[in-house]
Write a structure and sequence with these properties.
mainly beta, SH3 type barrels, 2 helices, globular
């Protein structure tokens, strides 16, 4: 049974993936599938949303598999660390440092070839 929030992404319509739009995520955003994480008490952990247009395509280096995996970035929050919430094409999600991502365009052969 496919996960209704974090299931496989239709590559032909990746831009329809729920995502954050210039605001910080809340617990409700995570429950709705628009965000992968939320920081909680912003008085203790100051942060701001990135101005990067989302959703966005990127490559993430998977240290377990030793390969670059195409992902859809649905959230970027900038604070003590620059964190990104990502969705995997085959389903699932993750959190990584923004510096771990290589942003790409839809015409990038590494996106097209997958």
């Amino acid at each position: 049974m496919e996960d209704p929030l974090w299931g496989q992404i239709d590559r032909a319509q990746w831009w329809l993936v729920p995502h954050m739009d210039g605001t910080l995520a809340t617990e409700d955003d995570v429950k709705a599938g628009r965000a992968v994480f939320f920081l909680g008490n912003l008085d203790e952990v100051p942060a701001r949303a990135s101005s990067t247009p989302l959703p966005a395509l990127a490559l993430w280096h998977d240290p377990d598999l030793g390969v670059h995996r195409p992902v859809v970035v649905i959230q970027i929050e900038l604070g003590q660390k620059e964190l990104a919430g990502i969705r995997f094409i085959e389903g699932g999600n993750g959190v990584c440092l923004l510096e771990e991502l290589e942003m790409i365009g839809e015409d990038d052969r590494r996106w097209v070839a997958v």
